[in-house]
Amino acid sequence: MIAAPGQREARDGDLWVFGYGSLMWRPGFPHSEAHRARLAGYSRCFCVYSVHHRGRKERPGVVLGLDRGGACAGMVYRVAAGHAEATLAYLRERELVYGVYRETWQEVDLLDAPGRSVRAVTYIAERAHPSYAGRLPLPALARLIRGAEGLSGPNIEYLVNTVRHIRAMGFRAGELRRLLVMIGPYAATAPDGPPTRARALALMRTHIAARRLRPPGPRITLDRLNRFLFRMRLGGVDRHRKLR
Questions:
Q1: Where are the domains of the chain?
Q2: Pick from 168, 164, 142, 165: which is nearest to 155 by CA?
Q3: Which of 114, 136, 162, 218 is deepest in the core (most CB within 10 A)?
């Protein structure tokens, strides 16, 4: 049931999920509603080191997280009560890798329904985790991203794909757009359409000198991760699974 303007959505067993990164265009779960939404108190930024999907231990990359301060525009999905348990299990498997993200419930405002808000599950960056990169300056992020590559491909490809999807949804990419321009105008002005692996690799190879630099990355040991292993168990994640 939809609440009156200015009131929260009634608790009816349905699950609401807020996405700010790949969940905006690849949620991966069934949903009955999808709305553009805004979360106050957290902002989207590259604040999580990646040594698996978009980087390696010897050359880490960075991926998106929600960090404290500001606000973030994204998508919120309504999942029917019958699918809520399975969806939550799926999200935990996807997000709770070594505990670098923390599951929270946040109040989000629906941008296409002024006065309407819902309480949604979302995943924020865990500042105490060794993979938390913090708010790095744009030049440092550029050095990390343009020289990193992981099992899922070049870090540049991840950035280009993120910026394109954010803008396609009518949101302003802001700092991410400036970061993309700093890394290389070729990537920022490439024709519309899916970013190609070849284009990202070509741009990465133009920064051979940057790749020789080894930016500071996370010092990750099992001892440092012990305090976060309960999140892995919550998500059904194998403790030997590599970092995102």
A1: 15-231
A2: 142
A3: 162
pTM of the model: 0.75
Is the CB of residue 99 less than 8 Å from the CB of residue 231? yes
How many Å apart are CA 188 and CA 173, to the nearest integer?
12
Task: Report the C-alpha gap between 16 and 67 in whole angstroms.
Answer: 20
Dihedral Cα 174, 144, 24, 114, nearest 10 deg: -30
CA–CA separation, 10 and 159 (whole Å): 37
Q: Which superfamily does 15-231 belong to?
A: Gamma-glutamyl cyclotransferase-like (3.10.490.10)
Could you give the 3-state DSSP secondary structure of residue 230? helix
Q: What is the C-alpha to C-alpha distance for residues 44 and 21, in angstroms, rounded to an integer?
A: 8
Q: pLDDT by residue (tens digit) across 153-212?
A: 889 989 988 888 898 889 988 889 899 888 875 555 554 544 556 555 555 555 544 444
| For range 55-82, the mean pLDDT | 94
| DSSP notation for 160-205 | HHHHHHHHHTT---THHHHHHHHH-HHHHSSPSSPPPHHHHHHHHH
Give the active site residues: 95
